[in-house]
């Protein structure tokens, strides 16, 4: 691995912008943008706090059925690391008002012909 290719400034800026766009869409329940930012493939995986979703169809169905209330959250300890020009990992913790649990989210992003897309994601919750 060429360590000089880790967190190339232009690539890091692109992935950070995509991550922030995803976060805005998530708390705003913008299902169209959330769908856009996931890889449209049956190999896409999203392991959630209470669900295991395999394939874009399952992820879409989950998003369509999810309640739109209570989505606001505060991020902390966000780490975005890019490897070369086509792959990145985004990890963050989140908290929600009224909850004592700490959420954790990790996403693997790949640059595809249509742009940066989440190819795998995991969300979990733990007691503070």
Automatic annotation (TrEMBL):
Domain of life of the native organism? Bacteria
Q: What is this protein called?
A: DUF3225 domain-containing protein
Q: Which organism is it from?
A: Mixta gaviniae
């Amino acid at each position: 691995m060429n360590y000089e290719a880790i967190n190339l400034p232009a690539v890091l800026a692109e992935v950070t912008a995509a991550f922030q766009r995803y976060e805005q869409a998530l708390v705003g329940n913008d299902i169209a943008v959330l769908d856009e930012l996931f890889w449209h493939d049956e190999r896409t995986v999203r392991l959630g706090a209470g669900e295991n979703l395999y394939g874009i169809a399952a992820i879409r169905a989950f998003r369509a059925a999810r309640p739109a209330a209570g989505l606001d959250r505060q991020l902390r300890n966000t780490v975005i690391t890019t490897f070369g020009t086509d792959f990145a990992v985004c990890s963050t913790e989140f908290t929600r008002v009224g909850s004592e649990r700490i959420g954790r989210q990790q996403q693997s992003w790949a640059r595809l012909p249509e742009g940066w897309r989440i190819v795998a994601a995991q969300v979990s919750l733990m007691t503070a």
